[in-house]
Design goal:
Strand order of the largest sheet: 4-12-11-10-7-5-6
Structural class: alpha/beta
Helix content: 40-55%
Strand content: 5-15%
Number of strands: 16
Bound molecules: pyridoxal-5'-phosphate
Radius of gyration: 24 Å
Distance between the termini: 17 Å
Largest sheet: 7 strands, mixed
């Protein structure tokens, strides 16, 4: 069986410790590195300095650690070509932008370039200008926000929805607030839950129990061990985006019924893409009415930016009234919200993009398999290729970009556990069969060059 992996609680804390927990808060101060003869002290102000702390050295060491482990992150300088996704321009080297094909975007359905979305954003910009004018408390609810919240509530069959500035913020703000409102609440969290859910759980300050990934027997054991009268919340994802597997939603909801627990699902990698209207796996599996809170992003399949939760009127009113991550931040630009509104409305009545994505993912998996490339067992639109080493994963990614004009970034720890580093492809409706054949050929050539083993062709 493939290793299942993403943001484990331990991986998260390890990554945090490795990178920032020892880092003091930054304050502008004189350059302490320039006077080697003063043992790190600045000779200009050494007289009244009692500490020999060298902040630059601490930051350097933090970055060096990442280089040593081969997981220093490099972000590509890119512009996508509207009307021609997944084609883009890459600004590497000195010879001007170079054409590339993007294989790892989370704009899964290419809605970021959909004519209806672009037109809606243009219209909103010209109608109401750029920003929202502040928090919802100060700037008010723009009419776009209200319309989108109604549309999202309807998408999930819930009474209400609430917008946030990102999916990350919606998870963090909602989970932390919800658990604080429930006295003595215990959160039961899948071990592979996303960093934003882990942050929300941590920020709630409540007790947590971690259940093995998608393991309902383990979840049952943990639920049964607690006082029946203590509030409980089960937090999990529908599609786990690094492996591409899916949660057993009904089985988890059965346990929630039995032990009187609330349910919270992150549908970030499913909304827009699954269900007849894009309501996610909970719509596809006819389970939305069994889940108390459904969380999603507006920045992936819907192609723009933002996040939300959908739930009962009462729960949404509580989050709206108590969550600092909602209250104390400028609300999304109405231009973005108008774009999302067009996207959600379109995907509610069109399955063309969803069908195209599923067909593309199936075709790419088959091509990888036929060529003996180590494609992992994903049951969804995610196509992960196991490499198992951070340096090699980066090298393959670099060669693909420099020599083949293919962009797919390496996925390293802490996003996945060490030893399971991989390349993660997200083919969509705009990737053609010809592109897939070229990609597969390039990968096989690189596999040969790096003397990596190919499996027997399927
Ligand atoms: C499972 C999951 N939840 C939440 C988020 C955060 O969503 P957003 O990118 O909108 O902040 C991500 C981001 O990749 C994610 O993978």
């Amino acid at each position: 069986m493939q290793a299942r992996c993403k943001h484990t609680e331990s991986a998260e804390s390890e990554a945090f410790n490795a990178s920032s927990s020892q880092t003091p808060r930054f304050k502008p101060r004189p350059d302490l590195t320039k006077s080697a003869d003063t043992d790190g002290r600045d000779s200009d102000c050494g007289a009244d300095r009692t500490s020999t702390l060298n902040y630059d050295q601490i930051f350097d060491q933090a970055i060096d650690r990442l280089h040593t482990e081969g997981r220093y992150r490099v972000f590509i300088d890119i512009l996508r070509n509207k009307g021609a996704f997944p084609n883009a321009r890459c600004f590497a080297g000195h010879n001007g932008p170079k054409p590339i094909t993007v294989w790892c975007s989370n704009d899964y359905l290419a809605m970021g370039q959909h004519p209806k979305v672009v037109a809606a954003m243009e219209e909103a910009l010209h109608d109401v200008g750029a920003g929202s004018g502040g928090t919802r408390n100060i700037g008010g609810n723009t009419h776009y926000h209200i319309q989108l919240e109604q549309e999202l509530a309807d998408l999930h069959g819930k009474e209400s929805a609430l917008l946030f500035t990102s999916g990350y913020v919606s998870n963090d703000a909602t989970l932390s607030t919800l658990a604080k409102l429930l006295p003595g609440c215990i959160i039961f969290s899948d071990e592979l839950n996303h960093a934003s859910m882990i942050a929300g759980i941590r920020n709630s300050g409540c007790e947590k129990r971690i259940f093995r990934h998608n393991d309902v027997d383990h979840l049952r054991e943990l639920l049964a061990a607690e006082d029946p009268d203590v509030p409980k919340l089960i937090a999990f994802e529908s599609v786990y985006s690094m492996d591409g597997d899916v949660a057993p939603i009904h089985a988890i909801c059965d346990l929630a019924d039995e032990f009187n627990a609330l349910t919270y699902i992150d549908e970030v990698h499913a909304v827009g893409m699954y269900g007849d209207h894009g309501g996610g796996i909970s719509e596809r599996d006819d389970a939305a009415d069994r889940i108390d809170l459904i969380e999603g992003t507006l920045g992936k399949a819907f192609g723009v930016m933002g996040g939300y939760v959908a739930a009962s009127k009462k729960v949404i009113d509580c989050i709206r009234s108590y969550a600092p991550g909602f209250i104390f931040t400028t609300s999304l630009s109405p231009v973005l919200v108008a774009g999302v509104l067009a996207s959600v409305r379109h995907l509610k009545q069109s399955s063309v993009e969803r069908d195209g994505q599923q067909a593309a993912a199936a075709m790419l998996k088959q091509k990888f398999r036929d060529s003996g490339l180590p494609v992992m067992d994903s049951t969804t639109h995610i196509v992960p290729l196991m490499v198992g080493d951070p340096v090699r994963a980066k090298k393959i990614s670099d060669i693909l970009l420099a020599e083949y004009g293919v962009y797919v970034q390496p996925i390293n720890f802490p996003t996945v556990p060490r030893g399971t580093e991989r390349l993660r492809f997200t083919p969509g409706p705009a990737h053609t069969e010809e592109m897939m054949s070229e990609l597969t050929k390039a990968l096989v050539e690189i596999w040969d060059r790096l003397e990596l083993e190919l499996a027997q062709a399927a």
